[in-house]
């Protein structure tokens, strides 16, 4: 019995799995998720990581850039803590004959902590030189544009995670344009096109899609509740058609992943 046939054995929700099979393959790479075990509010154990990854395999994803939070005083991760969790997960996948490839970066909160990482050039950078950043959901980060510029001055390319989820921008659409004009790319959470985060988030996401504003797409998967919601989104929406107004760059990450792998081998 091969890997994928095992996934379609007896069990819960197999009809949904069959209906959703392979429908995220067009993305090639999931560049925002919390699959590394035990270091933030995502997967809590190697077993949970494996279960989530195996389900994402069914949806067509086998390459992942995992992006655990780096948030001062909440999830104070470092390159070392992330690398340790990454190595443990890769070894666990190999032991369980899972064909997925995992790379590690981070989702950096725009706070005082990121200033120190920038000063030391210790950001957790994605293959291709991208740096994923986020803001608080409660209030905008006044240092956002300075952070964007500081990241660029290091030679990296900033990506703002899930801009549709920042409620304070929902009635200030010009802010999205200003962020893009500053050279910061935008990343959509797939669950945002449903009502998972609320009607206003869905409306904003669809407006940004229609305007061609998004550059990347991520699952932002943390746990089984996210997974179940994602399976329903994938079944319900023709995602590739929905996103055709945007030039989605996820597939371009493949070349960068291959370059990263070549460096490791060399």
UniProtKB/TrEMBL annotation:
* Enzyme Commission identifier(s): 3.1.3.48
The record's listing under Pfam families reads: CpsB_CapC
Report keywords, A-Z.
Hydrolase
SUPFAM superfamilies (UniProt xref) = PHP domain-like
Keyword Hydrolase on entry: yes
Q: Which reaction equations make up its catalytic activity?
A: O-phospho-L-tyrosyl-[protein] + H2O = L-tyrosyl-[protein] + phosphate
One MF annotation (Gene Ontology) recorded for this entry: manganese ion binding
Name the family the entry cites: Belongs to the metallo-dependent hydrolases superfamily. CpsB/CapC family.
Name the UniProt record assigns to this protein: protein-tyrosine-phosphatase
This protein's species is: Sphingobacterium haloxyli
